[in-house]
């Protein structure tokens, strides 16, 4: 634990008002019918900015597709994680989900606007028959960019920038987000020149 209290409001259950029929598996097949998106995906940032790219489904939330009773749960520590790390990083959500679903969830879990940008399925790249989240297309310095995802294939194009996090469904005793806070804060506080080298040491 990073010293932030219990799960608190993170144990809430939400039912998006206009949630469409949603399929948000961890592994998503590439959809070549979506229109291409101009690169880089993000506008320029200040030099020296550290960027933290976060997956959504099974990393921050889990959606239960139960027809009229559909809802999503928020992973313990999500609010604290987002709010605390927004002081150190430019936060970007990069999800393989469709935009209408992702926005309906993000509007509820990020009421304070800590997440700077949102990237969706149309921003993903083909990786075999699946998808990858290509950090090289977002327009950020890879030496200062980190992606946290529960599917390692999603950051297969830049594996040294990735932090794998355990898939989450509904375990309200989970502490994975809390546990990552000290590491991620420490990288910025130390002003590391290349996060990839530091993450290599972390994995070892």
Automatic annotation (TrEMBL):
Top-rank taxon, per record: Eukaryota
Keyword Transport: yes
SMART domains in the record: CPDc
Main location: mitochondrion
Compartment annotation: Mitochondrion inner membrane
Keyword annotations of the record: Mitochondrion, Protein transport, Transit peptide, Translocation, Transport
Segments forming domain FCP1 homology: 45-187
Keyword Plastid: no
Membrane topology annotation: Single-pass membrane protein
A biological process term (GO) from this entry: protein transport
GO cellular component term of the entry, any: TIM23 mitochondrial import inner membrane translocase complex
Quaternary structure annotation from Swiss-Prot or TrEMBL: Component of the TIM23 complex.
Family: Belongs to the TIM50 family.
Function as written in the Swiss-Prot or TrEMBL entry: Essential component of the TIM23 complex, a complex that mediates the translocation of transit peptide-containing proteins across the mitochondrial inner membrane.
Protein name per Swiss-Prot or TrEMBL: Mitochondrial import inner membrane translocase subunit TIM50
């Amino acid at each position: 634990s990073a010293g932030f209290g219990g799960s608190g409001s993170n144990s809430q259950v939400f039912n998006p008002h206009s949630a469409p029929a949603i399929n948000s598996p961890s592994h998503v097949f590439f959809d070549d019918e979506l229109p291409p998106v101009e690169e880089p995906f993000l506008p320029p940032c200040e030099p020296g900015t550290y960027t933290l790219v976060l997956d959504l489904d099974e990393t921050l939330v889990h959606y239960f597709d139960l027809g009229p009773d559909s809802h999503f749960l928020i992973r313990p520590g999500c609010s604290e994680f987002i709010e605390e790390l927004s002081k150190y990083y430019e936060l970007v959500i990069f999800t393989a989900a469709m935009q209408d679903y992702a926005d309906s969830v993000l509007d509820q879990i990020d009421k304070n606007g800590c997440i700077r940008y949102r990237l969706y399925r149309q921003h993903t790249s083909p990786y075999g028959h699946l998808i990858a989240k290509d950090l090289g297309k977002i327009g950020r310095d890879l030496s200062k960019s980190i992606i946290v995802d529960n599917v390692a294939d999603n950051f297969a194009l830049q594996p040294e920038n990735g932090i794998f996090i355990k898939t989450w469904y509904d375990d309200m005793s989970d502490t994975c987000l809390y546990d990552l806070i000290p590491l991620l804060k420490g990288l910025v506080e130390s002003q590391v020149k290349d996060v990839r080298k530091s993450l290599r040491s972390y994995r070892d």
